[in-house]
Amino acid sequence: MARVLSGWHISPVVAGLLVAVLQTAIIGYMVEGRASILRSGAEVRLKTLPVDPRDLLRGDYVVLSYPMSTIPSTIITGPIPSRSGEQRLNVRLLPGADGTWTASEASFADLAPAAGSVVVRSLPFEFYRSGEGGLPETLFVQYGIERYYVPEGEGRVLEDARNQDELEIDARVSASGEMQIARILLRGKPVYDEPLY
Length: 197
Prior knowledge:
This protein is α+β, with helices and mostly antiparallel strands. The protein is built from 3 helices and 14 strands. The strands form 5 sheets. A 4-stranded antiparallel sheet has the order 1-12-13-14. It has a 4-stranded mixed sheet with strand order 4-7-6-8, with no helix packed on it. It starts with a helix and ends with a strand. The model is unreliable at 1-5 and 53-57 (pLDDT under 50).
C-alpha cells in the first residue's frame, strides 16, 4: 500500500486544473454570498455623513461614512469585554420618520430579533477599555460599506452630494447582520443600482 501511494504522481496539467477549479469555486462562493444578501436581505436606507475633504475620492471609489458608525456608550447594553482587544459590535437599527435607519442599541453580545428593527454586525475593531466602566464615551465602527466604486471620473458628483448631505444609500442586511450596498441615491433618486452578479 505504501509503495502504491509513494508511486502516485499528478501531472502538472492536472495539478493546474485542480488549482484553477478550486480558485473558481472560492470566487464563486464569495460572489454568491454577496448576491444572496442583495437578493434576499432586509432593506434599510442610510444617511451618509460628510467626510474630511483631505480624504476624498481615492482612485475610483467614494469614501462613505454613516451616523451608525459612531456608537455612543449610552446605547450599549449587556456585558462589556473584560479586556482590550479585537471585538465586534451588534447594532440594532430602527427606521426614522425620514425613512433613514439609525442605531438605537448596541451590544458585544447577540441582540434578540425585534419587530420593526434590523440587527447589523460591525467589522472587527480594536476595543480599548477605559476607566472603571471599561467603555469609552464613543466607539467608532465600520460595516464593510464604507467604499463605493464608481466609473472613472464620476466620483466628484457623489463626493459633492455627500458633503452637502444629499447622498443616501439603500443597503441589504443578511440574517447574520452582514451589509451590502444595493443602491446609491442622490437627492432621493437612485443613480447607481448594484447588479446581483
